[in-house]
Amino acid sequence: MTKEKILVIGASGQIGVELTMALREIYGNNNVVASDLREENPLLKGSGPYVSIDVMNKEMLHVQVIRQGITQIYLLAAILSATGEKNPGLAWHLNMQGLLNVLDIAREENIHKVYWPSSIAVFGPTSPKQNCPQQTIIEPTTVYGISKYAGEFWCNYYHMKYGVDVRSIRYPGLISYKSAPGGGTTDYAIEIFHDALEEKRYVSFLEENTYLPMMYMPDAIRATIELMEAPKERISVRTSYNVAGLSFSPKEIAAEIKKHIPDFEIIYQPDYRQEIAGSWPRSIDDAVARRDWGWKHEYDLAAITEDMLKNLPSVMK
Ligand code: NAD
């Protein structure tokens, strides 16, 4: 087997930190190079190599890929849904150009595999709300969703035209305690735990019955690694795979937290993010990922709540 050397771009972010840790466990600390525009995340310090990379600077990225002998790239740098609506031009520019830079370098340097996440934000108001299938009407209304959908087709194009082995998952909202979320519409499901522990009170920016597809970070990391390790011939989708975890509303997660913190209260003050959330499906059908590479989520709402309330205090100090 060829020795793999992996570059994670956006390693200081919510997913990047945990994905880098998981990849270092599998491939060895020195074979996973963390990189970001931001400084190295304290959780990664000392565990392996770190380089400062701006994914928009193609030349600098190209030099690092050659210098480090990189064979696989995980591209996580992006501007997320809520932040994207505040600066649409920047979101489009980073989300598109960053991906094209990586795909071009992957093609030129014969990179073995590329990972790039898409999002349930590709779906829009005309997509089915329940069990939204892999292939359906897709008319996104946020700049983030538009950029992710265009990105999916660039991945497919580079695979078909140039044989780049690029793989992708449409992540739902990801819940985690190790690193802070990066400006998504589903961030409420993380903030609520912080505020429940600190103030026993949370002001929700989504209405009480807004159901969204969600997933606990350990499931998301496992999905990513299982997809990347699946044999090439099992991968039938070269745009991006639907993967499902669970779906719940602010009212339901608040009720689950109340089982642990009985005097916790939630107040609803929906803002511009309600409109974004309202445009997305409530639940996702992931039959194709299950069939192709055996995907199955593990964490339900009770397990997530228990784990978050148990582990969050140690990182909040
Ligand atoms: P994040 O914002 O927490 O992390 C992104 C990282 O990219 C940050 O550390 C940032 O400093 C870095 N970055 C930004 N611009 C850069 C540049 N020019 N060069 C190098 N690094 C740069 O985001 P995340 O939540 O970890 O998301 C990672 C990926 O997963 C993104 O593509 C996102 O769209 C996707 N995704 C996330 C979620 C979620 O719930 N977190 C859901 C669906 C899809």
TrEMBL record:
InterPro entries from the UniProt entry: Epimerase_deHydtase, NAD(P)-bd_dom_sf, NAD(P)_epim/dehydratase
SUPFAM superfamilies registered for this protein in UniProt: NAD(P)-binding Rossmann-fold domains
Listed GO biological process terms: L-threonine catabolic process
Pfam family, one: Epimerase
Domain NAD-dependent epimerase/dehydratase: 6-243
GO molecular function: L-threonine 3-dehydrogenase activity
Homology family: Belongs to the NAD(P)-dependent epimerase/dehydratase family.
Family annotation (PANTHER family): L-THREONINE 3-DEHYDROGENASE, L-THREONINE 3-DEHYDROGENASE, MITOCHONDRIAL
The protein's name: NAD-dependent epimerase
Organism this protein belongs to: Niabella ginsenosidivorans
